[in-house]
Amino acid sequence: MTEVEDSGEAQLAVRNLEKTFQSGDSPLPVLCGVDLNMQAGDQLAVTGPSGSGKSTLLYIIGTLDQPSVGTVTINGEDPFSRDETGLAKFRNSQIGFIFQDHHLLPQCTVLENVLVPLLASSGPATADEERAMNLLGRVGLADRRDHLPSRISGGERQRVAVCRALINQPSLLLADEPTGNLDQKTANNVGTLLLELSREQDAILVCVTHSLELAGRFPRRGELCEGKLVEKGSEG
After folding, report:
1. 72 strand-pairing partners
2. How many other C-beta atoms are found inside a 10 Å radius of the C-beta of residue 112?
3. pLDDT mean for each 10 residues of the chain (236 residues)
4. Which residues pair with residue 30 across a beta bridge?
5. How far is residue 122's CA from residue 143's CA, in Å, rounded to a whole number?
6. In CATH, 2-233 is 3.20.20.70
7. Of the candidates 229, 179, 188, which has an alpha carbon nearest to the alpha carbon of residue 207?
8. CA 209 to chain centre
9. Other CB atoms closer than 10 Å to residue 41's CB: what's the count?
C-alpha cells in the first residue's frame, strides 16, 4: 500500500488535511495529513474501522465540516473561502450526498423528493421534472413517482436518494455507508446503480463503507490508517 499519489491537476484536491476534536481537556486527532487527488469519473471507496475518520473525511470534502488544517479544492476553487450563503450555494450545485439513512421527506412524494435540491435555486422547471423522471426510470421507480416514502421499501428509498443526489448533475458525489441498512441483494443492486450512474455522469464518486464487498467493486480503494488515507489496488 502507498499513500495516494499526486496525479497532476485534480478536480478534487485534498492537501495535508487534519481534523482534531476536543475531548475533555485533551485534543483528539482524527485526520492526520490526508492527501487525495481525483479527476472527473474517478471512483474511490474508503474503508477503515469505526472511529477511523471516514465520515469526518467525507463531511469535510462535502463542506459540511471545516478542516483544522489543510485545504480542499473542488474544480479549482476553495469552497471554504466563501461566506455561509455562498458555501451553501456551492454545495447544492456541485456536490451530491447519499447517506446511510436516506433522509427523504416523509410528506413529499418520490418525485418531489428527487426535486428537493432544485428548490434552493429557481425551483424545478419542466425539463427538471423530465430529468427526475428519467433518473427514476433508470433505477426502476418511474411507477412509484407519486408514492410517499412510507409506501416504498428501504431499498427503493435508497434508490430515490441516489436520484436526488444526481438531479443537479453534481461534479462530486459523496456516499456515506449507502448500503449499510440494506439486505445483501438490495445492497448489490444499489451499489451497481451508484457506480453506473456516477460513471454515466462523469462525476467523482467517493464512498465510505464498512462493506469490503462493495469497496472491492471500485476502481480505487483507500483505507484510513492512523489518520492517513492509504490507497491500494482493487481486488475486483
Report:
1. 14
2. 17
3. 45 95 86 95 94 93 95 95 94 92 93 90 79 93 96 93 92 93 88 92 95 94 92 60
4. none
5. 27
6. no
7. 179
8. 11
9. 15
